[in-house]
Amino acid sequence: MAELRALVVVLGDQLDLEAAAFDGFEPEVDAVWMAEVTEESTHVWSSRPRIVMFLAAMRHFALALQAAARPLHYTRLGAPDNRGSLAAQLQADIERLRPARLIMTAPGDWRVLQAIKAVAQASNLPLDIREDRHFFVSVREFAAHASARKSLRMEYFYREQRKRHRVLMDPQDTDKPLGGQWNFDADNRESFGAAGPGPVPPRCGFEADAVTREVIALVEERFAQHPGRLESFSWPVTRAQALQSLRALIQDRLPLFGRYQDAMWPGDPWLYHAHLSAALNLKLLNPREVVVAAVAAHEKGQAPLASVEGFVRQILGWREYVRGIYWTQMPDYLERNTLGAQADLPPWYWTGATDMACLRDAIGQSLTHGYANHIQRLMVTGLYALMLGVQPRQIHAWYLAVYVDAVEWVELPNTLGMSQYADGGLMGSKPYVATGKYIDRMSPHCKGCRYDPAQRTGESACPFTTLYWDFLMRHEAALAKNPRMALQVKNLARMDATQREHVTARAGAIRRGEVGGHFIHSESNP
């Protein structure tokens, strides 16, 4: 066997033929390494849609590598010599292939990075970790931004990136934003109203080809006890499909993306959302081409500025910001629990078997499609877990397990920081808490629910509303010091001792599983 100069390690979320790891690649002396291993589906109890998403995309990328004439060592899940974990498989293949060094693009998961580093060290091999070019901002650049500020607010970071990359800036005055304002968020909070969303463009889905069908059959067999359904799986798993999804967004959904980005409607998971996060996070799409396409749509008069700005903010602002938070705060970030939350995640989060209509809808579609929009994640499933007092690592594991777009660098800060306020305000200036009236305002879920969002106590009281007041009471002293929470905390003064006792009693019944569905146990959960 000819001497192998470099083994290029490619992970399941690095499916890009132009990745930095391939710079200088020479087929005569280099080779690519990929592996499907059980541990990546079991370190959290991954849903079947998420497992299929990664494995199908990996297998299609393997075909792309072969078409590009790049030598590939690929271990399938069912291979007899599969060692079960990335570290063990890589160690075994290093011993067999005897490369002179390892090369990889920086991974998106701290755990995986440490595992690969440990293998390289144990094998006495140099490990060349290269910058991930799928981001506008490097980790070093974000660290420099953070070091110069007392607080890390996304809005100011976002404005810097708009200026730096010349995105949606006034052509007459390049220091000013197009349209005279940086953020159109206030224009992007409409609900559908009683009439509903009306005809919504169909989802851009893809029929499973032979490769994906093989993966689906494999997952149905090997991960039969894992949550989720696969009958409707139609996510993009190739570069060509991802580009088609991008074109469909620009043409069909972007014009109304901003206006309805916070709206929900029962039974319709897709609405006017982008559905591109999985393709972006697996590197089937580059965020630069996504931003360019959205800005071009506005320049051509195909989409209003408010919608385009709201979309760009998610890519150039929020996505870059959470990655910077992750890599500058890990590994300690994973352990943060500022509010001291210790409750267990309700078992029905793995089944959707709850009598709360909004949660039943959000969890049901999450298990069916591996998808929920950002408001369902933040202000339904996340809000409930926050006010219930769920231990942050438990709700983190659920989000990481359930969604097809979940990679830890993006999921963890969104969960622990934005959703659960477990980082004490590093990301968000206040806990995002609300009564059931917020959900009633943004969707018709409450009209078909047994609970009344206007009631905080009594048999018909909405658990969201009860838990909201209970949350304020439990954390009153700490929240009173937060200027953005002062008005909400002051409202507690209107409650006498008896009312507080009733709220506490009702909240206790919710936590014991006597209200809302906690008593409905999953047939199989971790």
Put the structure in a nutshell.
This protein is mainly alpha-helical.
Offer a few descriptive terms.
526 residues; mainly alpha; Rossmann fold; Serine Threonine Protein Phosphatase 5, Tetratricopeptide repeat; five-stranded parallel β-sheet
- Helix and strand run: EEHHEHEHEHHHHHHHHHHHHHHHH
CATH class type of the largest domain: Mainly Alpha
Q: How are strands sequenced across the largest beta sheet?
A: 3-2-1-4-5
Q: Largest beta sheet, briefly?
A: 5 strands, parallel
Please explain how this structure is put together:
- With 526 residues, this protein is mainly alpha-helical.
- The protein has 3 domains: 125 residues, 3-Layer(aba) Sandwich (Rossmann fold), CATH 3.40.50; 191 residues, Serine Threonine Protein Phosphatase 5, Tetratricopeptide repeat, CATH 1.25.40; 165 residues, DNA Cyclobutane Dipyrimidine Photolyase, subunit A, domain 3.
- It is built from 20 helices and 5 strands.
- It has a 5-stranded parallel β-sheet, with helices on both faces.
- β4, α4 and β5 form a beta-alpha-beta unit.
- α11 crosses α15.
- It is globular.
- 47% of the residues are buried.
